[in-house]
From TrEMBL:
<keyword id="KW-0808">Transferase</keyword>
<dbReference type="InterPro" id="IPR043128">
    <property type="entry name" value="Rev_trsase/Diguanyl_cyclase"/>
</dbReference>
<dbReference type="InterPro" id="IPR022880">
    <property type="entry name" value="DNApol_IV"/>
</dbReference>
<dbReference type="GO" id="GO:0003887">
    <property type="term" value="F:DNA-directed DNA polymerase activity"/>
</dbReference>
<dbReference type="Pfam" id="PF21999">
    <property type="entry name" value="IMS_HHH_1"/>
</dbReference>
<keyword id="KW-0548">Nucleotidyltransferase</keyword>
<keyword id="KW-0227">DNA damage</keyword>
<feature type="domain" description="UmuC">
    <location>
        <begin position="22"/>
        <end position="201"/>
    </location>
</feature>
<comment type="function">
    <text>Poorly processive, error-prone DNA polymerase involved in untargeted mutagenesis. Copies undamaged DNA at stalled replication forks, which arise in vivo from mismatched or misaligned primer ends. These misaligned primers can be extended by PolIV. Exhibits no 3'-5' exonuclease (proofreading) activity. May be involved in translesional synthesis, in conjunction with the beta clamp from PolIII.</text>
</comment>
<feature type="active site">
    <location>
        <position position="120"/>
    </location>
</feature>
<dbReference type="InterPro" id="IPR036775">
    <property type="entry name" value="DNA_pol_Y-fam_lit_finger_sf"/>
</dbReference>
<keyword id="KW-0460">Magnesium</keyword>
<comment type="subunit">
    <text>Monomer.</text>
</comment>
<keyword id="KW-0239">DNA-directed DNA polymerase</keyword>
<keyword id="KW-0238">DNA-binding</keyword>
<dbReference type="InterPro" id="IPR043502">
    <property type="entry name" value="DNA/RNA_pol_sf"/>
</dbReference>
<keyword id="KW-0963">Cytoplasm</keyword>
Protein backbone atom coordinates (compact mmCIF):
# COMPACT_ATOMS: atom_id res chain seq x y z
CA UNK A 1 0.00 0.00 0.00
CA UNK A 2 2.74 2.48 0.96
CA UNK A 3 4.69 1.65 -2.21
CA UNK A 4 1.62 2.28 -4.36
CA UNK A 5 0.99 5.62 -2.67
CA UNK A 6 4.59 6.68 -3.16
CA UNK A 7 4.47 5.69 -6.83
CA UNK A 8 1.27 7.67 -7.28
CA UNK A 9 2.84 10.69 -5.61
CA UNK A 10 5.96 10.47 -7.75
CA UNK A 11 3.82 10.22 -10.88
CA UNK A 12 1.78 13.27 -9.89
CA UNK A 13 4.90 15.31 -9.26
CA UNK A 14 6.64 14.25 -12.49
CA UNK A 15 3.67 14.76 -14.82
CA UNK A 16 4.03 18.48 -15.44
CA UNK A 17 6.74 20.00 -13.26
CA UNK A 18 9.91 19.15 -11.36
CA UNK A 19 9.63 18.01 -7.79
CA UNK A 20 9.09 21.01 -5.56
CA UNK A 21 11.56 21.74 -2.77
CA UNK A 22 9.78 23.62 -0.01
CA UNK A 23 11.06 24.89 3.33
CA UNK A 24 8.87 25.99 6.21
CA UNK A 25 10.82 28.22 8.62
CA UNK A 26 9.33 28.81 12.07
CA UNK A 27 11.05 30.98 14.67
CA UNK A 28 11.30 29.43 18.13
CA UNK A 29 9.04 31.11 20.74
CA UNK A 30 9.56 34.28 18.71
CA UNK A 31 8.17 37.13 20.84
CA UNK A 32 9.47 35.64 24.09
CA UNK A 33 12.87 34.89 22.54
CA UNK A 34 13.23 38.49 21.38
CA UNK A 35 12.47 39.66 24.92
CA UNK A 36 15.05 37.27 26.40
CA UNK A 37 17.61 38.32 23.81
CA UNK A 38 17.13 42.01 24.53
CA UNK A 39 16.99 41.60 28.32
CA UNK A 40 19.64 39.13 29.54
CA UNK A 41 18.02 39.08 33.00
CA UNK A 42 15.12 37.12 31.49
CA UNK A 43 17.24 34.35 29.98
CA UNK A 44 16.57 30.90 31.39
CA UNK A 45 13.41 32.10 33.16
CA UNK A 46 9.72 31.42 32.43
CA UNK A 47 8.57 34.43 30.39
CA UNK A 48 5.19 35.27 28.90
CA UNK A 49 4.52 38.14 26.52
CA UNK A 50 1.17 39.77 27.23
CA UNK A 51 -0.60 39.65 30.55
CA UNK A 52 -2.64 42.08 32.56
CA UNK A 53 -5.44 41.06 34.89
CA UNK A 54 -7.85 40.32 32.03
CA UNK A 55 -5.32 39.68 29.30
CA UNK A 56 -4.00 36.56 27.61
CA UNK A 57 -0.60 35.10 26.84
CA UNK A 58 0.58 36.19 23.40
CA UNK A 59 3.71 34.01 23.54
CA UNK A 60 5.56 31.88 26.08
CA UNK A 61 9.23 30.99 26.41
CA UNK A 62 10.22 27.34 26.40
CA UNK A 63 10.91 27.59 30.13
CA UNK A 64 7.26 28.65 30.60
CA UNK A 65 5.93 25.97 28.27
CA UNK A 66 7.27 23.30 30.63
CA UNK A 67 4.49 24.39 32.99
CA UNK A 68 1.82 23.93 30.30
CA UNK A 69 1.60 27.61 29.40
CA UNK A 70 0.50 28.26 25.83
CA UNK A 71 -0.49 31.16 23.59
CA UNK A 72 -4.05 32.48 24.07
CA UNK A 73 -4.20 31.15 27.65
CA UNK A 74 -5.78 33.62 30.11
CA UNK A 75 -3.11 35.36 32.16
CA UNK A 76 -4.67 34.33 35.48
CA UNK A 77 -4.55 30.67 34.41
CA UNK A 78 -0.93 30.99 33.33
CA UNK A 79 0.04 32.59 36.64
CA UNK A 80 -1.75 29.81 38.51
CA UNK A 81 0.23 27.19 36.60
CA UNK A 82 3.52 29.00 37.17
CA UNK A 83 3.58 31.47 40.08
CA UNK A 84 7.10 32.58 39.06
CA UNK A 85 5.99 33.47 35.52
CA UNK A 86 7.35 36.83 34.36
CA UNK A 87 5.01 38.89 32.17
CA UNK A 88 6.42 41.46 29.76
CA UNK A 89 4.48 43.88 27.60
CA UNK A 90 4.58 43.12 23.87
CA UNK A 91 6.80 45.28 21.66
CA UNK A 92 5.42 44.69 18.19
CA UNK A 93 7.68 47.27 16.57
CA UNK A 94 10.70 45.28 17.81
CA UNK A 95 9.22 41.98 16.60
CA UNK A 96 8.42 43.50 13.22
CA UNK A 97 11.96 44.83 12.87
CA UNK A 98 13.42 41.37 13.51
CA UNK A 99 10.88 39.82 11.14
CA UNK A 100 12.02 42.19 8.40
CA UNK A 101 15.64 41.13 9.02
CA UNK A 102 14.64 37.49 8.62
CA UNK A 103 12.66 38.12 5.44
CA UNK A 104 15.66 39.91 3.98
CA UNK A 105 17.65 36.73 4.58
CA UNK A 106 14.97 34.66 2.83
CA UNK A 107 15.12 36.97 -0.20
CA UNK A 108 18.76 36.00 -0.77
CA UNK A 109 17.67 32.43 -1.51
CA UNK A 110 14.35 32.74 -3.38
CA UNK A 111 11.72 35.17 -4.59
CA UNK A 112 9.02 32.67 -3.68
CA UNK A 113 8.42 33.50 -0.01
CA UNK A 114 4.94 33.21 1.51
CA UNK A 115 4.84 34.78 4.99
CA UNK A 116 2.22 33.33 7.32
CA UNK A 117 2.94 35.70 10.21
CA UNK A 118 5.86 37.67 11.63
CA UNK A 119 7.60 34.46 12.69
CA UNK A 120 6.97 31.86 9.99
CA UNK A 121 7.01 31.49 6.22
CA UNK A 122 7.10 29.02 3.35
CA UNK A 123 9.96 29.19 0.84
CA UNK A 124 10.07 27.44 -2.53
CA UNK A 125 13.75 26.74 -3.20
CA UNK A 126 13.28 24.43 -6.20
CA UNK A 127 15.66 26.76 -8.03
CA UNK A 128 19.04 26.52 -6.29
CA UNK A 129 19.87 30.22 -6.60
CA UNK A 130 23.05 30.07 -4.46
CA UNK A 131 24.29 26.72 -5.75
CA UNK A 132 24.21 24.99 -2.35
CA UNK A 133 23.29 21.61 -3.83
CA UNK A 134 20.18 20.66 -1.84
CA UNK A 135 17.16 22.08 -0.05
CA UNK A 136 18.62 20.76 3.21
CA UNK A 137 21.75 22.81 2.64
CA UNK A 138 19.65 25.90 1.93
CA UNK A 139 17.68 25.41 5.15
CA UNK A 140 20.87 24.91 7.15
CA UNK A 141 22.38 28.08 5.69
CA UNK A 142 19.24 30.11 6.41
CA UNK A 143 19.16 28.89 10.02
CA UNK A 144 22.85 29.71 10.41
CA UNK A 145 22.37 33.25 9.15
CA UNK A 146 19.31 33.83 11.34
CA UNK A 147 21.34 32.76 14.38
CA UNK A 148 24.34 34.93 13.44
CA UNK A 149 22.41 38.02 12.36
CA UNK A 150 19.60 38.08 14.93
CA UNK A 151 20.95 35.95 17.82
CA UNK A 152 17.73 33.90 17.62
CA UNK A 153 17.01 30.31 16.61
CA UNK A 154 14.65 28.95 13.99
CA UNK A 155 13.35 25.49 13.24
CA UNK A 156 12.84 24.33 9.66
CA UNK A 157 11.05 21.59 7.81
CA UNK A 158 12.11 20.57 4.30
CA UNK A 159 9.89 18.54 2.00
CA UNK A 160 8.16 18.32 -1.37
CA UNK A 161 4.90 20.01 -0.26
CA UNK A 162 3.73 22.74 2.11
CA UNK A 163 1.69 20.50 4.41
CA UNK A 164 4.56 18.16 5.25
CA UNK A 165 7.16 20.95 5.41
CA UNK A 166 5.07 22.65 8.12
CA UNK A 167 4.67 19.40 10.06
CA UNK A 168 8.41 18.79 9.76
CA UNK A 169 9.38 22.22 11.13
CA UNK A 170 7.55 21.40 14.35
CA UNK A 171 9.00 17.90 14.63
CA UNK A 172 12.28 18.74 16.38
CA UNK A 173 11.61 22.13 17.96
CA UNK A 174 13.37 24.17 19.17
CA UNK A 175 16.35 24.81 16.91
CA UNK A 176 15.67 21.71 14.79
CA UNK A 177 15.80 20.68 11.16
CA UNK A 178 13.77 17.82 9.69
CA UNK A 179 13.86 16.65 6.07
CA UNK A 180 11.06 14.46 4.71
CA UNK A 181 11.70 13.05 1.23
CA UNK A 182 8.89 12.16 -1.19
CA UNK A 183 9.18 8.43 -0.52
CA UNK A 184 8.86 9.11 3.22
CA UNK A 185 5.91 11.52 3.09
CA UNK A 186 2.92 9.22 3.44
CA UNK A 187 4.41 7.20 6.29
CA UNK A 188 5.60 10.33 8.12
CA UNK A 189 2.05 11.70 8.08
CA UNK A 190 0.65 8.32 9.11
CA UNK A 191 2.81 8.30 12.25
CA UNK A 192 1.56 11.66 13.61
CA UNK A 193 -1.52 12.57 15.66
CA UNK A 194 -4.20 14.24 13.55
CA UNK A 195 -4.43 16.98 16.20
CA UNK A 196 -1.08 18.25 14.89
CA UNK A 197 -2.31 18.56 11.30
CA UNK A 198 -2.64 22.06 9.86
CA UNK A 199 -6.35 22.48 9.10
CA UNK A 200 -7.56 20.15 11.85
CA UNK A 201 -8.65 22.39 14.71
CA UNK A 202 -9.53 21.33 18.27
CA UNK A 203 -13.23 20.80 17.47
CA UNK A 204 -12.48 18.64 14.42
CA UNK A 205 -9.80 16.73 16.32
CA UNK A 206 -12.34 15.82 19.02
CA UNK A 207 -14.83 14.73 16.38
CA UNK A 208 -12.16 12.55 14.76
CA UNK A 209 -11.21 11.10 18.13
CA UNK A 210 -14.83 10.12 18.73
CA UNK A 211 -14.69 8.24 15.40
CA UNK A 212 -11.48 6.43 16.38
CA UNK A 213 -9.29 8.62 14.17
CA UNK A 214 -6.23 9.45 16.27
CA UNK A 215 -3.35 9.30 13.76
CA UNK A 216 -2.72 9.87 10.09
CA UNK A 217 -2.80 6.10 9.64
CA UNK A 218 -6.31 5.98 11.15
CA UNK A 219 -7.42 8.77 8.83
CA UNK A 220 -5.99 6.97 5.81
CA UNK A 221 -8.22 3.97 6.55
CA UNK A 222 -11.30 6.03 5.69
CA UNK A 223 -12.46 6.30 2.09
CA UNK A 224 -13.11 9.62 0.36
CA UNK A 225 -16.93 9.17 0.39
CA UNK A 226 -16.83 8.34 4.11
CA UNK A 227 -14.76 11.42 4.93
CA UNK A 228 -16.96 13.68 2.81
CA UNK A 229 -20.06 12.29 4.53
CA UNK A 230 -18.58 13.08 7.95
CA UNK A 231 -16.66 16.30 7.23
CA UNK A 232 -18.26 17.80 4.13
CA UNK A 233 -16.01 19.63 1.68
CA UNK A 234 -13.05 19.28 4.08
CA UNK A 235 -13.18 15.52 3.59
CA UNK A 236 -11.29 15.67 0.30
CA UNK A 237 -8.52 17.72 1.94
CA UNK A 238 -8.16 15.18 4.75
CA UNK A 239 -8.16 12.35 2.19
CA UNK A 240 -5.22 13.95 0.35
CA UNK A 241 -3.06 15.08 3.24
CA UNK A 242 -3.14 11.74 5.07
CA UNK A 243 -1.59 10.31 1.90
CA UNK A 244 1.07 13.00 1.77
CA UNK A 245 -0.51 14.81 -1.19
CA UNK A 246 -0.63 18.61 -1.24
CA UNK A 247 -0.44 20.49 -4.56
CA UNK A 248 -0.59 24.02 -3.17
CA UNK A 249 2.06 26.36 -4.49
CA UNK A 250 4.09 28.79 -2.42
CA UNK A 251 2.52 32.15 -3.23
CA UNK A 252 4.69 35.20 -2.74
CA UNK A 253 3.13 38.25 -1.11
CA UNK A 254 0.12 36.37 0.22
CA UNK A 255 -2.69 38.97 0.36
CA UNK A 256 -4.20 40.04 3.65
CA UNK A 257 -7.75 38.79 4.29
CA UNK A 258 -8.34 41.42 6.96
CA UNK A 259 -6.52 43.88 9.18
CA UNK A 260 -7.73 44.51 12.71
CA UNK A 261 -6.91 45.31 16.33
CA UNK A 262 -8.64 44.51 19.59
CA UNK A 263 -8.38 45.32 23.27
CA UNK A 264 -9.29 43.27 26.37
CA UNK A 265 -10.27 45.35 29.39
CA UNK A 266 -9.27 44.90 33.00
CA UNK A 267 -12.94 45.10 33.95
CA UNK A 268 -16.18 44.66 32.02
CA UNK A 269 -17.38 47.94 30.52
CA UNK A 270 -20.96 49.05 29.92
CA UNK A 271 -20.92 52.85 30.12
CA UNK A 272 -21.41 54.24 26.57
CA UNK A 273 -18.89 57.07 26.83
CA UNK A 274 -16.14 54.79 28.12
CA UNK A 275 -16.86 52.24 25.39
CA UNK A 276 -16.70 54.98 22.75
CA UNK A 277 -13.33 56.20 24.01
CA UNK A 278 -11.90 52.69 24.05
CA UNK A 279 -13.18 51.96 20.54
CA UNK A 280 -11.55 55.14 19.27
CA UNK A 281 -8.24 53.88 20.68
CA UNK A 282 -8.68 50.46 19.06
CA UNK A 283 -9.53 52.13 15.74
CA UNK A 284 -6.24 54.02 15.87
CA UNK A 285 -4.26 50.81 16.43
CA UNK A 286 -6.09 49.04 13.61
CA UNK A 287 -5.68 51.89 11.13
CA UNK A 288 -1.94 52.04 11.78
CA UNK A 289 -1.79 48.39 10.70
CA UNK A 290 -3.92 49.15 7.62
CA UNK A 291 -1.43 51.82 6.56
CA UNK A 292 1.56 49.54 7.14
CA UNK A 293 -0.12 46.81 5.08
CA UNK A 294 -0.80 49.32 2.25
CA UNK A 295 -4.30 48.02 1.61
CA UNK A 296 -7.76 49.48 1.14
CA UNK A 297 -11.01 47.82 2.18
CA UNK A 298 -14.76 48.26 1.90
CA UNK A 299 -16.08 46.53 5.03
CA UNK A 300 -15.67 47.66 8.64
CA UNK A 301 -16.33 44.95 11.25
CA UNK A 302 -16.90 45.48 14.97
CA UNK A 303 -16.13 42.59 17.34
CA UNK A 304 -17.66 42.51 20.82
CA UNK A 305 -16.96 39.91 23.50
CA UNK A 306 -19.14 40.12 26.59
CA UNK A 307 -18.12 39.28 30.14
CA UNK A 308 -19.66 35.80 29.79
CA UNK A 309 -17.39 35.22 26.74
CA UNK A 310 -20.27 35.29 24.25
CA UNK A 311 -19.16 36.93 21.01
CA UNK A 312 -20.94 38.96 18.35
CA UNK A 313 -19.79 40.84 15.26
CA UNK A 314 -21.43 43.62 13.28
CA UNK A 315 -20.32 44.85 9.85
CA UNK A 316 -20.91 47.80 7.56
CA UNK A 317 -19.87 47.84 3.90
CA UNK A 318 -19.26 50.79 1.61
CA UNK A 319 -19.35 51.07 -2.20
CA UNK A 320 -15.88 52.66 -2.15
CA UNK A 321 -12.83 51.94 -0.06
CA UNK A 322 -12.75 53.44 3.46
CA UNK A 323 -10.43 56.42 2.82
CA UNK A 324 -9.04 57.39 6.22
CA UNK A 325 -9.02 56.89 9.98
CA UNK A 326 -11.91 59.32 10.74
CA UNK A 327 -14.27 57.45 8.37
CA UNK A 328 -13.05 54.08 9.68
CA UNK A 329 -13.54 55.10 13.32
CA UNK A 330 -16.93 56.68 12.58
CA UNK A 331 -18.15 53.44 11.02
CA UNK A 332 -17.05 51.55 14.10
CA UNK A 333 -18.78 54.02 16.41
CA UNK A 334 -21.99 53.69 14.38
CA UNK A 335 -21.89 49.91 14.75
CA UNK A 336 -21.27 50.24 18.49
CA UNK A 337 -24.16 52.69 18.89
CA UNK A 338 -26.52 50.13 17.34
CA UNK A 339 -25.75 47.79 20.26
CA UNK A 340 -26.36 50.33 23.05
CA UNK A 341 -27.43 50.05 25.75
CA UNK A 342 -25.48 46.81 26.19
CA UNK A 343 -27.32 43.98 27.98
CA UNK A 344 -24.18 42.95 29.88
CA UNK A 345 -20.64 44.17 30.43
CA UNK A 346 -18.18 44.09 27.54
CA UNK A 347 -14.83 42.35 28.03
CA UNK A 348 -13.27 43.03 24.60
CA UNK A 349 -13.69 45.39 21.66
CA UNK A 350 -12.17 44.85 18.24
CA UNK A 351 -12.37 46.72 14.95
CA UNK A 352 -11.20 45.51 11.56
CA UNK A 353 -11.17 46.23 7.83
CA UNK A 354 -12.21 43.48 5.39
CA UNK A 355 -12.76 43.00 1.63
CA UNK A 356 -9.24 44.19 1.00
CA UNK A 357 -7.20 45.02 -2.07
CA UNK A 358 -3.71 46.38 -2.52
CA UNK A 359 -3.67 50.16 -2.25
CA UNK A 360 -1.85 50.37 -5.59
CA UNK A 361 -4.24 48.16 -7.59
CA UNK A 362 -6.31 49.67 -10.40
CA UNK A 363 -8.71 52.26 -8.91
CA UNK A 364 -11.84 50.70 -10.46
CA UNK A 365 -11.44 47.52 -8.41
CA UNK A 366 -12.80 49.38 -5.37
CA UNK A 367 -14.22 52.37 -7.26
CA UNK A 368 -11.89 54.73 -5.47
CA UNK A 369 -12.28 58.41 -6.18
CA UNK A 370 -9.53 59.97 -8.24
Amino acid sequence: MALALNQKLAAMQSDERPLRKIIHVDMDAFYASVEQRDNPALRGLPVAVGGGHRGVVAAASYEARKFGIRSAMPSVTAKRKCPDLIFVKPRFDAYREVSNQIRAIFADYTELVEPLSLDEAYLDVTEDRRGLGSARAVAEDIRRRIREETALTASAGVSYCKFIAKLASDYRKPDGLTVIRPEQGAEFVASLPVARFHGVGPVTAKKMEALGILTGADLRAWSLPELEARFGSSGSWYHRICRGIDDREVKADRPYKSVSAERTFDEDLSEPQRLSVELERVAGYAWARVERAEVVGRTVTLKVKYGDFSLITRSKSFPDGVPDLPKFAAAGQSLLQSLLPVPKGIRLLGLGLHNLADRFDEPQQLRLAI
